[in-house]
Automatic annotation (TrEMBL):
CDD domains: Tryp_SPc (cd00190). Keywords: Disulfide bond, Hydrolase, Protease, Serine protease, Signal. InterPro entries: Peptidase_S1_PA, Peptidase_S1_PA_chymotrypsin, Peptidase_S1A, Trypsin_dom, TRYPSIN_HIS, TRYPSIN_SER. Residues 1-20 form the signal peptide. GO terms for molecular function: serine-type endopeptidase activity. SUPFAM superfamilies: Trypsin-like serine proteases. SMART domains: Tryp_SPc. Pfam families: Trypsin (PF00089). This is Peptidase S1 domain-containing protein. GO terms for biological process: proteolysis. Residues 67-312 form the Peptidase S1 domain. PANTHER family: ACROSIN-RELATED (PTHR24252), HYALIN (PTHR24252:SF7). The lineage of its organism: Eukaryota, Metazoa, Ecdysozoa, Arthropoda, Hexapoda. It comes from Drosophila virilis.
Length: 314
């Protein structure tokens, strides 16, 4: 049996398809960095008919990496960060309940269980925000109406497998330093040691959501620990599945918590320190901020085919 046929039988992608997919993601991420962070500046010598020369200024800055135990994010540090809510039409108020990650000019990646909540289905997304109580911060918040949303076809509300969804905004986002996408992952994250989690979630179990965007550095935890911790339950009838889920936590009291669901865990782009890859989606916590008790994240790399299919059609 040839290798190509064997891969199809096993349900795996042929290598050339994987390579092509990887190259497309790399190219897209590079183009985004150039469009947002590189600026062409013209100058000329002070004599008649001197030619105009152009120089590229690279504004791609490094942020200090390091939420329960977290610290406030810097202005423009996480321009892909989205907040999801339900706007009550009669009252005009908004209940914010989940996070998300901008991945194109119209699409926001989140957890499937965030698309509908006790407050109602998601119908508004805020981008470019930092501190909900501060109108004088270095931010550029804007609310976007929701045109549609997509759950992964294998997600069911009875458990938390395939906990991934995509929101389509009603209008395109104009990219700038305050609002632009995160890159999709180049790898599955199994060889990475640490991540950055971001969100407006509670800073303690059963606490109120943070008014400021927080960040925290978390570590990859051995899959065996997640297998032992969650075992088999109503939410995870098959136990922990490392191929589509990530086991991430900390030896300290640092964690994601209520309200962080749907938000990203990130790593820095290896070449562009101002850019991030979204490696995982906050799916379910076990005990907010308890040292050595990990949380479960959806592994984004596993779902790239489905993500790219949605992107191609929207």
């Amino acid at each position: 049996m040839c290798i190509y046929v064997l891969l199809l039988v096993l349900g795996l992608q042929p290598f050339h398809q994987i390579l092509a997919q990887h190259n497309q993601i790399v190219s897209s991420c590079t183009s985004l960095k150039k469009a947002v962070f590189e600026e062409q500046v013209g100058y000329s010598f002070l004599f008649r008919n001197a030619p105009i020369m152009y120089e590229t200024i690279d504004n791609c800055l490094t942020y200090t990496p390091l939420i329960v135990g977290g610290q406030p994010a810097d202005p423009k540090e996480f321009p892909h960060m989205a907040r999801l809510g339900h706007r009550h039409q009669k009252l005009g108020t908004i209940d914010w309940f989940c996070g998300g990650t901008l991945i194109s000019n119209k699409l926001v990646l989140t957890a499937a269980h965030c698309l509908e909540s006790e407050q109602g289905e998601v119908n508004v997304v805020r981008l470019g925000d930092l501190d909900l109580d501060n109108d004088h911060e270095d931010a550029s918040p804007k609310n976007y109406a929701v045109a549609d949303y997509f759950r992964h076809p294998q997600f069911t509300s009875s458990d938390l497998y395939n906990d991934i969804g995509i929101i389509k905004l009603a209008e395109p986002v104009q990219f700038d330093r305050y609002k632009h996408p995160a890159c999709l992952p180049f790898e599955n994250g199994e060889n990475l040691d640490s991540f950055i989690a971001v969100g407006w979630g509670s800073t303690s179990l059963a606490g109120k959501s943070s008014r400021k965007l927080l960040k925290v550095k978390l570590d990859r935890i051995a899959d065996e620990i997640c297998r032992r911790v969650i075992e088999r339950s109503e939410d995870y009838p098959h136990g922990f599945e490392p191929v589509s889920q990530m086991c991430v936590g900390s030896s300290k009291a640092m964690d994601t918590c209520n309200g962080d669901s749907g938000g990203p865990i990130l790593v820095y782009h290896k070449e562009y320190p101002c850019m991030y890859h979204v490696m995982g989606i906050t799916s379910a916590g076990i005990s907010c901020g308890t040292p050595k008790i990990p949380s479960i994240y959806t592994r984004v790399h596993y779902y790239l085919d489905w993500i790219r299919q949605i992107m191609a059609n929207n």
